[in-house]
Amino acid sequence: LSSDFVGAPMPGSHASFSQQSQGANSSSSMVGEICKDMLGFLRKGLKQQYSLRKTLYNGFTGLARVNSELGNRALQMLLPHFQEFYEQDQTLQPPLRLERCSAILASSKKFGAVEPLHSLIFCVQTLIRLAAGEETGKENSVSTILAQDCNNLYQRMLHTNLEDFGIDKAMDVDVKLPPGQVNLHNCYVLLGCIEALLDLKMSSIKQDDVKGLGVLFEMHERLTAILSGRPKAPKKDKNEFFIRLIEKRTPHISVDSLASFLDVLREGDFASSQELSNVQSTQGSAGRKLARNTSFRVFILQQCNAILERAIEGKKHHARVILACGGIVQNKAVVENVLRLEGCNTALSKMGVPLFRTCETFVLAACNNAALSGSENLVLAACTAIRNVVTIAISSEPHIIEEVVAGETGGATAGIEGLGRVTPHTQFYSHLHHLLVGLVKGEFHKEAEIVTNAMFDFCSCYPDELGKAVAALALQTCKEAETKHVAFAQAALRLALAFSHPSSRIADSISEDLYNFVEGIQEEEVTQNVQVAFKIVSERSVNAIAQTVLLHCITVLDDVWSVQSRKTVDTSEILRPVLELLALYCQMSLPMHQVTDLLMKALAKVYKTMGHIAKSMTSQKPQKSLDLSFIQLCDQYAKELTPDVYDFLLTLHNDDAEEREKQSESLLKKETRTIPNLIFNIEACDRQLILLSKASGVNLMKNAKRSQARDFQIQLQKRARVS
Description:
Helices cover 67% and strands 1% of the residues. By secondary structure, it is an all-alpha fold. The protein has a two-stranded antiparallel sheet with strand order 1-2. The longest helix has 32 residues, at 665-696. 35% of the residues are buried.
């Protein structure tokens, strides 16, 4: 409708969908008949399934943006359908007929969703807004009628209570039974309708409407509290429809309205300084009260996050589809149109810049005054929004970075260690830098974890410009931040390990702290007496830090082959600290099976890597002399790592019988697979080193310890069978 038919000639070879168009001679008459038939099909879709109706409403708004005439035709179709759910009698309450949105089927006595009324209202008012923007010189009667109905609905909702809809705290919202499912669906439909009405007034806000916005938000907040207090259904009883309705709910406020709301929140009032002198003081105070309401700020930020997360997921999905098709896009316009019709390709730049600035203001204000009531939820929503903006900026909207730092002179980058020349990327990084420092100082560790992950994603795109600075910040954070939030300790350490230079040996330093801490606890059983250089090391974070370091070792081992193929760096210098770390972790007593699994995986990978390197050296013709660094690496392998690995395996084997009985059958089966696999890799590596020794004339296995693991393997398999 939008591109192939409207205003375009129709090839004579195409047949019409209507019997009336068969005798038409002109292509324009054929196009008109085809459009009428298609519109008839769409009109029938308004009486079809719930999901089809939602798709139609989303598609109507996309068509109206392409062609205003199609928007007018959509309004003509939607007018009688909208009036089925709108109570036109002004004396009756409530104004919306929610009872028609859900039904209990007579045949099966099961719940059935009928009408997504919130999507319908949002679609109607979007079409009205687009029709009003078209200066056609004549008044559209259908648009006028629907605009009047929407305005009347808004005014009547201001004088409506939740009890008028039959909604209160005592209502049944249990998803196990059909009546509770009907009530729950109606509540979420009403929640979306309130959001759509907020969007309706925010698009053309007047000072007189501020009080009404406050009334609607209070109703929204009360309804949200009722829904959040409902009993949670167990996983086995969860309904797929309600999972999509609740957990994947999309907001019904447009990007333009949210951008306006963000400006209001940042300024602290709905009226500008020039307008404040022209309005009554009571109206001005109502606007300031709503704009500075913490719950209202959190609500707006959550709406923004929902839109950004939907856009991110949509772009990831289509990127996977393109990758599955060979990574070639035959027609980029098709992908863009699909994203737009699915609501994933909105004008995110309109919202991205004001959202980042508003959230930055909120976070820094809360860090300077942590005693603000309710600041935790606000800071959490703001940091989540910042990470979403960073994800959008580095994936598809890079101009957001330039717009955020537009007009800055570079003073924010002063005093940040490791930053070079001033660029938009370094300026944007300085904002994230100051946010993380403020969050750590204010002890918002959960929120600091979110910003740390955002910094990791952003700096990964520009490692040459930002790597040195972010490594220094992460190292300082790991040494100074005392936190009980384990995830933040992991995120900060991952940041430090990823961007620090190998010569800094951060992994070695923190692993030594970890070893001393574990040994100190076992000897003294008092954690306060154990001195560590990295304050993120604590009794709660021991296993998390160990997992982070081991994952870093696995990443380094994965990168060894790419380094060796380029032959620009000596792989022995890369592997030597990895061998030292793994030997140290084999000596630790870390009880968590997750750490043990990662350690076994890293050990198997390092032996496999060593074996492949030795095999490639053996196959070289003519045989080259071995480097001294590789000979030293083999000595370290034979004298330090392998004996510690054998002791570690025997420690696992000699666990108390009571501890063995506590382990689940799945863990025992996993051990029977991973341990023999590790032993196989050890012996395969030994074999390759022996072959290389014969080919080169250098005995690389002179310090090797004889394997003691054969009996261990048989005994463990026997024990697993007995269990």
